[in-house]
TrEMBL record:
Keywords: Pyridoxal phosphate, Transferase. GO terms for cellular component: cytosol. InterPro entries: Aminotrans_3, PyrdxlP-dep_Trfase, PyrdxlP-dep_Trfase_major, PyrdxlP-dep_Trfase_small. It comes from Coniophora puteana (strain RWD-64-598) (Brown rot fungus). The lineage of its organism: Eukaryota, Fungi, Dikarya, Basidiomycota, Agaricomycotina. Gene3D superfamilies: Aspartate Aminotransferase, domain 1, Type I PLP-dependent aspartate aminotransferase-like (Major domain). GO terms for molecular function: pyridoxal phosphate binding; transaminase activity. This is PLP-dependent transferase. It holds the Pfam family Aminotran_3. Belongs to the class-III pyridoxal-phosphate-dependent aminotransferase family. The keyword Nucleotidyltransferase does not apply. CDD domains: OAT_like. PANTHER family: AMINOTRANSFERASE (PTHR43094), AMINOTRANSFERASE CLASS-III (PTHR43094:SF1). It comes from the Eukaryota.
Length: 463
């Protein structure tokens, strides 16, 4: 009998298990090499915002392969890249003025780090060499983005070579875990604002390049929006000391929260000086990210070198830009921000109902259901009443739910270690379906997810 292809691999995988092989996709369904057809409730990694077979995007990619698949941007520009940049600027209502492209989120954030430094280097403030970001954040997997972010287990293997001199951290904005008893939302925001200001003062305010945050935190803590007023307060500190206010919307941007930019709905409308986007930009049809620059940055750079000092071979790749342009046009033409807002609301309601209503099996262990738009996080906790009934046998609950979901026909994302600063506690799952998901599909996703949570619970109850 032939060994299934999924058992043989020459890839050094990112999972402790050998992942099943996907062979084709249609809408939000993925067919595996064992013939199973599973539903993707999370768009890969919150990427596939149109599913995998949007006819117009597929056609755009095919047309671009026929026309011009590659050109190098140190020699020539190309039409899809120019048009995509114009589209991104036009849709920002004057907030952004220039764009530079990358091949994904980490590269975009690496570009952000270098752009912030280039800006001050070229505009007469070369003493600015420090970045401030937050604990329990994720900004990518290159060495500088690992240093910029802070998540203990993610940086552990690299701690010996991570730059701790130029990257500094303040507390996360995560009310469910870190707002103090008796503290109002306003007081919590003020405490975080003061902490940032203190960090500026400690480092020397005129040494700070910028403050960097995910508008809605994704992987590390599991879809955590900041308290109201937080981004306005943090931006005010940056403005006070002449530093940049920088947002990482690699995961939460380009429509994921129901608005094109997450700061428009979940960030107090606080316009960033620089912003990174990626996942929803290309929707998985191509590997692409982008750095969006405000007028302030554009003016500064134009008045100095006038060019990007940072680049890669596949930057502004015509194939990636053509795919991304078609994705962005489809989001607008098909009114998909409205759809994902509506379907996301339904998803949130169903998750609350089936996981948190008093008679729900998972209620004692569902610490929080949160999110918005098409981005939902479900956090579990076994330290409260009822926890003594469960024996996880040393396993991480969320990871088990991810495995069980796949068995039940649903792809989700699960992470551990977002509930304390040490990264040793916390289990959460993420759902982030395509923006063109239907109500029936949302119901099916939640049904399969809740079933998987309950299956794992039943297997873990002490009899
Ligand atoms: C907020 C954030 N920044 C950066 C990245 C890195 O993006 P990529 O995996 O495309 O390099 C991610 C990926 O999940 C992310 O969520």
């Amino acid at each position: 009998m032939p060994v299934p292809a999924s058992r043989l691999t020459s890839i050094l995988h990112r999972t402790p298990w050998i992942p099943p092989v996907a062979v084709s996709g249609e809408g939000i369904y993925v067919t595996l090499d064992d013939g199973r057809r599973v539903i993707d409730g999370v768009g890969g990694a919150a990427v596939a915002c149109l599913g995998t077979s949007h006819p117009k995007v597929v056609q755009a990619v095919k047309d671009q392969v026929d026309t011009l698949p590659y050109i190098y941007n140190m020699q020539l520009s190309n039409q899809p890249a120019e048009e995509l940049a114009q589209n991104l600027i036009a849709s920002s209502n004057g907030v952004f003025e220039l764009v530079s492209f990358a091949s994904g989120g980490s590269e975009a954030m690496e570009g952000v780090i270098k752009l912030g430094r280039q800006f001050f280097f070229e505009t007469g403030q070369p003493q600015r060499t420090n970045y401030i970001a937050r604990h329990l954040s994720f900004h990518g997997n290159t060495l500088s983005t690992v240093a910029l972010a802070y998540h203990p287990s993610r940086r552990l293997p690299y701690a010996g070579i991570v730059d701790n001199e130029h990257f500094h951290h303040v507390s996360p904005a995560y009310a469910a875990r870190f707002q103090r008893q008796g503290e109002t939302e306003e007081q919590y925001v003020e405490r975080l604002r003061q902490e940032l200001e203190d960090k500026f003062i400690e480092l020397g305010p005129d040494t700070v390049i910028g403050f960097v945050a995910e508008t809605v935190v994704g992987a590390t803590t599991g879809v955590v929006p900041a308290p109201k007023g937080y981004f306005k307060a943090m931006k005010a500190v940056c403005n006070k000391y002449g530093a940049l206010f920088i947002l990482d919307e690699v995961m939460s941007g380009m429509g994921r929260m129901g608005t094109l930019h997450a700061w428009q709905s979940f960030g107090d409308g606080a316009e960033p000086d620089i912003q990174a986007v990626a996942k929803g930009l290309g929707g998985g049809y191509a590997s692409i990210g982008a750095v969006l620059m405000s007028k302030k940055i554009a003016t500064g750079i134009r008045g100095a070198s006038g060019l990007s000092k940072h680049g890669h071979t596949y930057q502004a790749n015509p194939l990636a830009c053509a795919a991304s342009l078609a994705v962005q046009k489809a989001i607008t033409e098909e009114n998909l921000l409205d759809n994902i807002t509506k379907q996301g609301k339904l998803m949130g309601e169903l998750l609350h109902e089936h996981l948190q209503s008093p008679n729900a099996l998972a209620a004692p262990y569902t610490f929080d259901v949160r999110g918005g738009g098409g981005f939902w996080g479900i956090e579990f906790d076994f330290e409260g009443p009822g926890g003594e009934r469960v024996d996880l046998k040393g396993k991480q609950f969320a990871m088990d739910v991810q495995a069980k979901s796949l068995e039940n026909g649903l792809i989700i994302m699960a992470f551990a270690g977002g509930a304390n600063l040490e990264g040793t506690k916390g289990d959460h799952c993420i759902l982030s379906p395509a923006y063109n998901v239907t109500s029936d599909e949302v119901k099916r996703i939640v049904e399969l997810f809740v079933k998987s949570v309950e299956d794992v619970l039943r297997e873990s109850f002490i009899s």
